[in-house]
Specification:
Layout lengths: L5 E11 L5 E12 L4 E5 L6 H9 L6 E6 L2 E2 L7 E4 L11 H12 L5 H14 L15 H14 L4 E5 L7 H18 L2 E5 L3 H7 L2 E5 L7 E6 L17 H22 L10 E2 L11 H7 L2 H4 L2
Parallel strand pairs: 3-8, 3-9, 6-7, 7-8, 10-11
Antiparallel strand pairs: 1-2, 1-4, 4-5, 9-10
Helix pairs in contact: 2-3, 2-4, 3-4, 4-5
Bound molecules: adenosine-5'-diphosphate (ADP) and magnesium ion.
Length: 303
C-alpha cells in the first residue's frame, strides 16, 4: 500500500464576501490516504465537504495548496477520478448500457462497439443490473439509478472513486444493500474510495479512515479516526463488536459538541499533524443499549 496515494497538501477555499471581505470555508487542510483505502468525511452541513470532494475531482480549484494523486498534481477533471453524486446524474435519453458505454468510450476512444459493450456489460452485471440494460433512467428506481452511477464510475477503472452522499436520498433498505455492494466491490477490486456521508453507521461500516471536520466557516480537519473494527466486518453484526460503541460514541460526541467548540478550545492543533485516534482500542467498551439509542440520533444531528 502506498502511504500517500492521495495527498491533500495545505488546501484552502475562499470566496469573496460582501464589501470586499473574504470568507474562508476551510484552510490549511492536510490529509492523505493510501492506495486501496476507503476514507469517509463527516462534518456538519456547510463545513466544506463537497468543496473538498470537488477539488479532488478537479471540478473546483483550491485558493491555496495542492492535491496530489498517485504522484501527480491535480489540474482539472480526469477519467482517473470518477464521481458518484447524490443525484444520479445519468443521461436521461440513454439506456443503462448507453450510459455506462458513454463513459467507457470517453476513456478508450479507439475501442470498437463490441468491446465497449462487453466491457460496460461486465460492470452492469457487477452491480446487479443484468436484465435492465435497455431501460432508460425514467424506468429505474432510485437505487437502480445509483447502481448505474456506480457501474459507470467503476467501468473506467478510476484511481479513486469519489462519492458525495451517494445514498442519502435512498430508503434505508436500498441504502443498506448498496452499501454492501460498494463495500464488496471495493474489497474485491482494491478500489480507493473517498466518500462524504452524514451517516455515522455508514462511515463505520465502509471506512478505514474517518475524517472529522469542524463546523465552518473556517473549518479544519480535527481528527482522523482509524476504524478499529476488523476488515471483514458485516453490516448485520457491526454493533456486536466490542469497539463499535466506543467508535460510534466518539464520532457522535464530535458531531454533537466538539465540532462546534474545537477551533475555540484546541489551541495546540497542528493541521499538518492531525491526531489519529483509534477509539476503543486497548479498552474494549460495550455500552449499554440506552446509550446506543441516544446515540442513534446522530444521523440527523449531522444535517
Ligand atoms: N460559489 C460559492 N460562492 C460562495 N460560497 C460558496 C460557493 N459554493 C459553496 N459556498 C459555501 O461554501 C460552504 C461549503 O459548502 P459545501 O462544500 O457545499 O459544504 P458541505 O458539503 O460540507 O455541506 C458553504 O457555506 C457554502 O455556502
Ligand atoms: Mg455537501
Amino acid at each position: 500500500m502506498t502511504d500517500k496515494f492521495i495527498s491533500i497538501e495545505g488546501i484552502a477555499r475562499r470566496y469573496p464576501g460582501a464589501e470586499g471581505t473574504t470568507t474562508t470555508i476551510f484552510q490549511n487542510l492536510w490529509l492523505s490516504m493510501g492506495r486501496g483505502e476507503f476514507g469517509c468525511v463527516i462534518g456538519h452541513s456547510g463545513c466544506g465537504k463537497t468543496t473538498v470532494l470537488n477539488i479532488l475531482a478537479g471540478l473546483d480549484a483550491p485558493s491555496e495548496g495542492t492535491v496530489i494523486v498517485d504522484g501527480q498534481a491535480i489540474e482539472g477533471t480526469s477519467l482517473d477520478r470518477a464521481v458518484i453524486f447524490q443525484s444520479h446524474a445519468l443521461l436521461p435519453w440513454r439506456t443503462v448500457l448507453g450510459n455506462v458505454a458513454y463513459a467507457v468510450t470517453s476513456k478508450w476512444r479507439n475501442w470498437d462497439r463490441a468491446k465497449v459493450k462487453a466491457h460496460a456489460q461486465t460492470f452492469i452485471d457487477l452491480v446487479g443490473l443484468s436484465g435492465s440494460e435497455h431501460k432508460r433512467p425514467s424506468e429505474l428506481s432510485g437505487g437502480m439509478k445509483q447502481r448505474v452511477g456506480i457501474a459507470r464510475a467503476l467501468s473506467i477503472t478510476p484511481k479513486i472513486m469519489l462519492m458525495d452522499e451517494p445514498f442519502s436520498a435512498l430508503d434505508a433498505l436500498t441504502r443498506g444493500t448498496l452499501q454492501d455492494e460498494v463495500r464488496r466491490i471495493c474489497l474485491e477490486t482494491g478500489q480507493t474510495a473517498f466518500m462524504i456521508t452524514h451517516d455515522v453507521d455508514e462511515a463505520i461500516y465502509l471506512a478505514d479512515k474517518i475524517f472529522l471536520m469542524t463546523n465552518g466557516p473556517g473549518a479544519v480537519l480535527a481528527e482522523i479516526v482509524e476504524n478499529p473494527l476488523p476488515k471483514d466486518r458485516g453490516r448485520i453484526d457491526l454493533h456486536r463488536h466490542p469497539y463499535y460503541y466506543a467508535l460510534r460514541n466518539h464520532i457522535v460526541d464530535f458531531l454533537v459538541s466538539r465540532s462546534k467548540t474545537f477551533t475555540a478550545t484546541v489551541t495546540s492543533h497542528d493541521p499538518r499533524n492531525v491526531p489519529t485516534v483509534r477509539p476503543g482500542l486497548g479498552e474494549p467498551t460495550i455500552v449499554s443499549p440506552p446509550r446506543a439509542v441516544e446515540a442513534s440520533s446522530a444521523q440527523t444531528i449531522a444535517r
